[in-house]
Design goal:
Two copies of one chain form a homodimer. With 380 residues, chain A is α/β, with parallel strands linked by helices. Chain A has eleven helices and twelve strands. Chain A is 33% helix and 14% strand. In chain A, 58% of the residues are buried.
């Protein structure tokens, strides 16, 4: 197993690598979807539970833009994962019955190869030399992990947010692997509004002098731009309704009177704390690459419509979950996926949840998401 | 009449000052709402039509954050104003019958005193020496113009967006002046979501190295930060629905292949063009001051609730207009104003319009706004 990359640019990783994280090597050289070539690529993943003798109990989780493969704690890494309440004994993704696999996306900086990984020629970070990454490549990377584990047919592929795009791309490109699909808070293709916000986030990062045209020494050098981009992200990951209830117009107890524009409202300090945790902990170019990949992805590129693309899949059953307060991937976009899969012959359960947590509801509104997903898995 | 300020920092003004713009001098020194002191202050305004002998046909327009007093063309300045289709002979604000006054907000850089105006002591821009400006001060500045014109009772006060806050503050602080209120796309107090976005915009501006802690030489030095903040503004001034219809996932004909993150989608180039027009044309500190004033304003500061504040007004009739797709000031916030005014005894017409242009609908969906406002004025 390769050692963790020495040049990730990550100064405060979300959890100490590698712990339970394993990696597989990708074929090298590997031609990517948009024509670039990747050498010495690797994909990081974690697993929970036991693969059955028939190798038929595996559930694959593909992630949103920033999470690592560490979706839950386990014997080798007891730190809580990003979807901790969903994975474990007698939880929705029940490790007593299922073999759960979570993959870190190609292009990320959490163990899989990306712009922050060392280039095989000089050991320096790839930075802008890294080939353009598409959702299709992320899907292929996840499929490579599944193949390396000897699994030919997954019980289900689960994708929230960007992972929902990855799951759709997997079902399209590896239909035999993906008979059952669970996607949530995603889209078959991003809207103009989502593209606008992500494009702006990318510009905010690149406007930071520390970005230095992608030649920054460490992620922390771009802390200002990354922090501001993160705030815009957080602002759109939750909902105005939630913030009204949580913060309203509540004031901070203390204020820096030396700065006439210092934070005064609780909502501002909430965003400040998110920005602080994020800046330095995620590589700026990995962020730019994955953000751009989400803009590019368009399922209707395959056959001219989302429905035509769904006909090229072999999805038997699908659970599609949308959230009424999601402003980034509004529920209509989940409906489009559900209707297209149904038109293509799949048995589709579409659930519109009234969570007030917006796009991030799948991470926090466990009381609504867990039973819906559990019931679907029960029926498989 | 004072000459236009030589140190506005504005390199590309929206329209050449002064043209039809007049100014009045404020009392000096003037104590502002939050305790600061302003010397040699001035308020800019324009008028259209004729004040009747009884001085009873005046309609005052108070503006959103960025517009000048040049709301419409006229003999002295034929360039189109920011609300051109609404003002003129036989238009909604009918200059054959009404005397229309539009005031530039205190704190702005369009002729009224603000951080970009020359300090009376040294002639250099006030910058951060300018006292903190509140919506209450903007309202008092507008009332000073009306008083200087010899008007004791307005036919109506009209305020869109930030101007809606100003109109409410005027009705509260100058009740005898404001028996009839027309407010739209505003709030009695900003939501946590709106505060979050504006706080982020202010940080984006201040993160620009050209901002130099407020000591920039010219507005154009802060073009990057102001342009990015403007993009976030535009992203929230319109609606996802409108962009889906206008741009969808449409691509640009040309793309700069030398830049891996260059704009590719039409929505990106739309934002680019807005940012270009804005950067350098509005003073950064004026923007920060007015943005902060909107966060601060809270009608419920007066008596503990919005309704209690409305009881301190003397509003007889009000038209309150909300737009279903406004994400910055959602329609519920207009409903709150309408219900509070009604509870305080006013005759209130509340209109929820289905425009898809979001917060900016009052500027562009003239076919919906014009008849609603015309009918209300007819009844007065």
């Amino acid at each position: 197993m390769p050692a963790p990359h020495p040049f990730t640019g990550v100064t405060r990783p979300a959890h100490p690598m590698p712990g339970a994280t394993r990696t597989i090597a990708l074929p090298s050289p590997l031609r990517l979807h948009r024509g670039g070539e990747l050498r010495a690529g690797a994909i990081a993943y974690e697993t929970w539970g036991e693969l059955s003798a028939a190798r038929d109990n595996a559930i694959l989780i593909v992630t949103g833009m920033s999470p690592s493969a560490h979706a839950a704690s386990g014997p080798e890494d007891p730190s809580p994962g990003w979807w901790e309440p969903m994975i474990g004994s007698e939880r929705t993704f029940d490790t007593d019955r299922h073999f759960i696999v979570c993959v870190n996306s190609l292009g990320s900086c959490r163990g899989s190869s990306g712009p922050a990984s060392p280039h095989p020629d000089d050991g320096l970070p790839w930075r802008l030399r890294f080939p353009a990454v598409s959702i299709e490549d992320i899907a292929d990377g996840a499929a490579a992990v599944v193949g390396a584990l000897g699994i030919e047919r997954l019980r289900a592929v689960v994708g929230p947010s960007m992972g929902g795009m990855t799951a759709q791309a997997m079902a399209l490109r590896h239909p035999q692997l993906c008979p059952n699909l669970i996607v949530m808070s995603c889209a078959a293709r991003s809207s103009a509004f989502a593209i606008a916000l992500r494009s702006l986030q990318r510009q905010i990062v690149r406007a930071d002098p520390g970005y230095a045209n992608g030649q920054y020494a460490h992620a922390i050098d771009v802390a200002t731009g990354m922090g501001l981009a993160r705030k815009l992200g957080v602002a759109t990951y939750r909902s105005p309704q939630e913030w009204r209830e949580r913060f309203g117009r509540g004031r901070l107890a203390e204020r820096n009177d030396a700065d006439p524009f210092a934070s005064e409202f609780q909502i501002e300090s909430y965003l400040d704390s998110h920005a602080r945790r994020w800046a330095g902990s995620f590589d700026p170019l990995c962020y730019l690459y994955l953000s751009r990949a989400m803009d590019w992805f368009d399922l209707s590129d395959y056959g001219g419509s989302v429905e035509a693309a769904c006909r090229q899949m072999a999805v038997e059953r699908a659970l599609v979950i949308g959230v009424a307060t999601d402003i980034l991937f509004p529920a209509e976009q989940q409906e489009e996926i559900a209707e297209s899969l149904r038109a293509a012959g799949a048995d589709v359960d579409y659930q519109a949840l009234p969570s007030i947590q917006g796009h991030d509801a799948f991470l926090v509104d466990i009381p609504r998401f867990a039973p819906v997903i559990s019931r679907f898995l029960e029926r498989l």
